[in-house]
Specification:
Two copies of one chain form a homodimer.
Chain A lengths: L3 E2 L11 H12 L5 H8 L3 H13 L3 E7 L8 E9 L3 H9 L4 E8 L4 E7 L2 H11 L6 E15 L7
Antiparallel strand pairs in A: 3-5, 3-6, 4-5
The structure holds a DNA duplex (17 and 17 nucleotides).
Chain lengths: 160, 160
DNA sequence: AGTGAAACGACCGTAGA
DNA sequence: TCTACGGTCGTTTCACT
C-alpha cells in the first residue's frame, strides 16, 4: 500500500490563501459548518463547500477522527528501526500487514524501514517483535525505541 | 508541550462497542452526519451526538483535517534520531519549537529523541539540521533517515 | 443515558453571472 | 469559480422515560 513516494511525479497542488484558510479552520474543528467557515474566511457557504469537496476528492485533505492510544489503553508505543537483506518493498508490505503497525516508512540511512507500533502491553510488543517481525523474510536486525513521552504531534501541514 | 506520558496516571477510558463503532465511522469520514452514524451503529441521532461530544470533550478523540505534505510541495520528510547530553526534556522542548518538526518523542534506546520533520527542499532540511538543530543546547549527535516512501499511515486506534 | 417531536439552521442541487 | 435561492435533511432543544 504505497500512499506516496518522492519523485513520483505527483502534481503538486498550489493552494490559494482562501483554501489554506479553510484547511486551517478544519484543522481546529473538522466538523465546523460550511457557513461558519465561510464567515471566517470570507466566502459563501456554497463556495466553501465546493472547495472542501475538491480538497477531499483530490486527496490533498482528509477529515478524520484521531484517537489518543494512551487513553484507550494502548500504553506501549515504540519506533522500530529495521535492516533488510534483499527486497525492502516486499518486507515493507509484509510488516505493514501487522495490525500493531500504524506507520511505516522506507528510509535511507542505517535503517531500511522504520515502523511505529502501538501495543497494549510489553508482552504484546515483545511477541510482535520476536515472534512475528523477526520472522518476516528479509528482516536481518531490528532496533527498538520505546516511547517515554510524546512531546509534539501536529497535523497542520500546508498552512504555515 | 507534553501531550501524554506513560505511567502518567491518566485514566484509561473503557469504550463500549457502540462508541467504538461510532469512532470507526468517524475515522472513515469525520463529517458524516450524526443520523447516518446512528443508522450504522444502531442508536438515535441524539445519542450519537451525546457520545461524540463526550469523546471530544474528554480528549479521547479529535476530528481534524489532515493534509498530504507531498501534494502540497513539502517533499522532503525525514526522521531524525538525536542523542542528548544533559536535560533531555529541555532539549525536546527546544526542538519541538521548530516549525518543521511535526512529531517528537522521547525514547529509550540509542536515541534520546526522535523527531519527524517536513521540509520543502533538501536545502531547507540541511539548514534545519546543521544550523539550528545541532546548536540546540544538549544535542550531541544526530542521525537522519530520509523518507524514500511512506507505506502505511493509519489513525484508527482503539477500534480494532 | 436514551428517545421523540418541533423549530431552526445547515446542506445540496441547480441556475446564472 | 463564485453567488443566489429553495427544497430537503440534519441538528438542536426540551420534555419524558
Amino acid at each position: 500500500m504505497v500512499i506516496n513516494a518522492q519523485h513520483s511525479g505527483q502534481p503538486v497542488v498550489q493552494l490559494d490563501e482562501k483554501s489554506k484558510a479553510i484547511i486551517e479552520q478544519l484543522q481546529h474543528d473538522g466538523r465546523q459548518s460550511y457557513s461558519a467557515i465561510g464567515q471566517a474566511v470570507g466566502l459563501s457557504e456554497a463556495a466553501v463547500r465546493q472547495r472542501v469537496s475538491r480538497l477531499l476528492d483530490s486527496g490533498v485533505m482528509q477529515i478524520v477522527a484521531v484517537t489518543d492510544p494512551m487513553q484507550l489503553g494502548f500504553a506501549r508505543q515504540a519506533l522500530i528501526g529495521i535492516r533488510i537483506d534483499g527486497d525492502v518493498v516486499a518486507a515493507a508490505e509484509a510488516i505493514g500487514e501487522f495490525g500493531e503497525v500504524d506507520y511505516l516508512v522506507i528510509t535511507a540511512g542505517s535503517f531500511d524501514i522504520i515502523a511505529e507500533v502501538i501495543c497494549e502491553s510489553d508482552a504484546d510488543l515483545f511477541e510482535l517483535i520476536n515472534d512475528r517481525l523477526r520472522r518476516v523474510p528479509g528482516v536481518s536486525t531490528t532496533e527498538t525505541f520505546m516511547y517515554l513521552s510524546l512531546h509534539k504531534q501536529k497535523y497542520n501541514w500546508g498552512t504555515r
